[in-house]
Amino acid sequence: MSIDAATFTARISGGLIVSCQAYPGEAMRDPNTMAQVARAAVTGGAVAIRLQGTADIRAAVDLDVPVIGLWKDGDDGVFITPTLEHARAVADAGADVVALDGTRRPRPDGLTLAGTIAALRETHDVLVMADCGSLDDAIAAEEAGADLLGTTLAGYTGERRKTPGPDLELVAQVAARCTRPIIAEGRIHTPDAAAAAIEAGATAVCVGTAITHPSTITSWFVAALDARPASGHEGSA
To answer: What's the stated role of this polypeptide (predicted)?
Structure first.
């Protein structure tokens, strides 16, 4: 579906975007599996879905909600849809919104963020989400023409400390300085944290790990149980 910025903003306002991703080598690392997870999230009330990789995006083209697509290439530096070529491939796969690294760091293909967005729009009718790591990133991304500002990279670029939960301070800072819709993303692990992000000024929240990554969710429960003091019942005859 092709969607304009105003319509997209209205659809996601106050809502939950669910990121459906699995890491290479994991049991769920399959496009059809991710598409099924996405459909389950939509059934639960997700207003949009975020998917990684062109195969996953193509597998979920039948969703009744907008798709935010990205392509991770590498795991360090600028790796979220890092080049114009990646951005065009994500758009070709059917994403309504192309998410890309929205930081001020050098991009692998030498283009600026503004140049990437402008060139993408010459060939594709899509919205652009800038995954930012700081207030300066968000201001620069808005000036570069991004339609949406995400706090996805807060705590991962060296400009801000990595908070245990969402960086609500950054959400509030961006809301006070920028006019584009804000998607709070990153370390939102509870419903209360999601609600707090909206209260801080986010237009919508994006949750991934806490909903769609069973390995991590399982590890949280295991860690909590392992941290309990021995009850004295284990091993008793």
So the answer is: Converts N-acetylmannosamine-6-phosphate (ManNAc-6-P) to N-acetylglucosamine-6-phosphate (GlcNAc-6-P).
